[in-house]
Amino acid sequence: MIKTEWYKNGVFYQIWPRSFKDGNGDGMGDLYGVISKLDYIKSLGVDGIWFSPLYPSPGVDCGYDISDYMDIDSAYGGMSAFRDLLDQAHSRGLKVIMDLVVNHTSDEHEWFQKSRRRIDPYTDYYIWRPGKKGGKLPNNWDSHFEGKAWQWDDVRGEYYLHLFAIKQPDLNMDNPLVRQEVVRILNFWLEMGVDGFREDVITFISKKEGLPSDRLMPATRGIRFYNNGPHIHEYLRQFRSEALDRFDCVTIGEAPLISPEKALDYIGGDQRDLDMMIQFQCMCANCFFIDYYPHPFSLRKLKKSFRTWQETLDGRGWNMLYLENHDHPRVVSRYGSERLRDKSAKALCCAYMFQKGTPFVYQGQELGMTNFKVTGLSDFEDVQTLNQFTWLPKGLRLKLLARASRDHARTPMQWDSGEHAGFSACEPWFHLNENYRRGINVESEESNPCSVLNFYRKAIALRKETGCVLSGVYREYKRRSRRHYIYAMESESESLLVVISFSKKTTRFTLPLAYQFRELTLRLSNYEKEPQGDVLRPYEARVYTVKQQSSR
Ligand code: GLC
Questions:
Q1: At what angle do helices 452-465 and 341-353 cross, to 10 degrees?
Q2: Is 200 near ligand 1, meaning CB less than 6 Å away?
Q3: What is the mean pLDDT of the chain?
Q4: Which option is the CATH number for 473-547: 1.10.10.350, 2.60.40.1180, 1.10.150.170, 2.160.10.10?
Q5: Which residue from 12, 91, 141, 317 has the least number of CB within 10 angstroms?
Q6: Residue 327 alpha carbon, nearest atom of ligand 1
């Protein structure tokens, strides 16, 4: 099958199904709801949808704990609603990408139930170990969500490995039968017409032989023995040759801790294992490692991550661009300003939308949705949040969680200012951000030509009509500035110049020399009043196009 690389011209919209739109009135989002909003999604100018998991699941990790890979959860409308969604999305020219979660399953998956009872062929589908002398755990690895990475199972009389929650046992990918299952899953959905996969923590699937204990990094001991593990490329190649290569589809691998150089091992060249990677560096401009370890927002850190990915991948691999997804708080609250929400949401849109790669927009990001006001620990629902910092005093713990919880991205989508924000006819499964009553909702933003929503539409349209965003070379100016982000996509015939202030105050800037004597056409701005020369208002963002490349 010839791969057309259609995704390179595309923009994706991510749906987190529980919180997008309730179509059957039970308080939880579902596919009927999504179908009713396909025209809205299309109206953004996007080309495809990535769905966070839709499969049957006990819901311990909101669907990332799968109990059946070949079905759709009845709470979302089951398989018939999914087929309908697929047809209706395709008839509007929207591609559909599924989430592939094969590092682990739910412990309620039939495979695990049989494996714990040593019923063949499932006996070695998971990573079982007897434990060490004196009742010690098989090794000292930590799980990302719940304490140590081993759980004792009375039924089998052994420990099993779980890198995430206790109810998410890791699959044994070294078992060829497990890899065959993955191939079957891929073919099943691709044959149905799905256009690709976002592959969950895919760089974790191959563990180092012997599962050695670790001495480093107390919080995530073991990660160096399973991240980019010994057989990862071999396994990904098998998935390609036995399934993915038969279809004109896309793959996007989630890769914690990956650097751009390392990413090229996966996404570089023609015979690549994956088409794009979800990196985390652009998510670490106000934290160390992950959101839970805070430091103040650093524009220079953000710019550096953008720059290194743009420069390292140019001509060698394809970028995946994002600033929000279901695993991080809202970007306006993280990197922008809630007080200057409208301006900073638009500035953040410009900060990534014109780079080379395929941009993803997360539901509600296009409205400038913010974090909700946390009042107590009972406001949280997410398994990762609830297991963080359990040893800290309550007040401090609450403060840290309120800043970092992924629950902020999971409040229901705000459709209008009426009851339940137009998300559902009844009480939603999770609390709403009360600011839906204050204009942050689709209905209000539709009617305001200057809303964040309409700004996203304009930005996506401009990206698409400006060829140099895809064909040009990324160039960053004033790199050392702590307040301004200035970058350009430059090609022979045309350039696009983006000037953004991240300051809450009015500041001054100078145009890069290469642009000082060119004719700049202002194509997009987040202020209604004309730009004032070298004065940048708080969070001001301007996007210019320039005919003819300036001489360097
Ligand atoms: C990925 C998902 C996240 C999930 C975890 C375990 O990081 O994005 O939501 O909790 O993997 O599956």
A1: 20
A2: yes
A3: 97
A4: 2.60.40.1180
A5: 91
A6: 9
